Amino acid sequence: MTHSAPQFLDEPPAGQALTPYDREHMTLYLRLLDAARDGADWREAVQILFGLDPDLDPQRCRLVHDAHLARARWMSDRGYREIVRESQRH
Q1: How many other CB atoms sit within 10 Å of the CB of residue 24?
Q2: Global confidence as pTM
Q3: Residue 66 to residue 71: CA distance in whole angstroms
Q4: 32 and 49 in contact (C-beta within 8 Å)?
Q5: Which residues, 6+ apart, have CB-to-CB distance to 30 below 8 Å?
Q6: Residue 60 in contact with residue 3, Cβ under 8 Å?
Q7: Closest Cα to residue 21, out of 31, 32, 10?
Q8: Exposure string over 27-64, b if 16+ CB within 10 A, otherwise e
Q9: Tens digits of per-residue pLDDT, 2-24?
Q10: Which of 79, 52, 78 is nearest to 63 (CA)?
């Protein structure tokens, strides 16, 4: 069985509301935050987490990495509050 890279957009949806895409990519966001915290090179992170080769298309790879990292940071700063509110309703 082969391991396939997760499906992703080049740029995650923007905005101040949690999206289905955010929910589906929560693990990816956490792994990006961990990589950034650990000082991992973006090229290594995009290759491991997205299955992309930064040598073939560095501009796209950098966009994918940076856009998802920015969304991950938004999630850790503000987006998680929506999840907390939902869990308090149940």
Answers
A1: 13
A2: 0.84
A3: 9
A4: yes
A5: 72
A6: no
A7: 10
A8: ebbebbeebeeeebebbebbbebbebebeeeeeebeeb
A9: 445 458 999 999 998 899 999 99
A10: 52
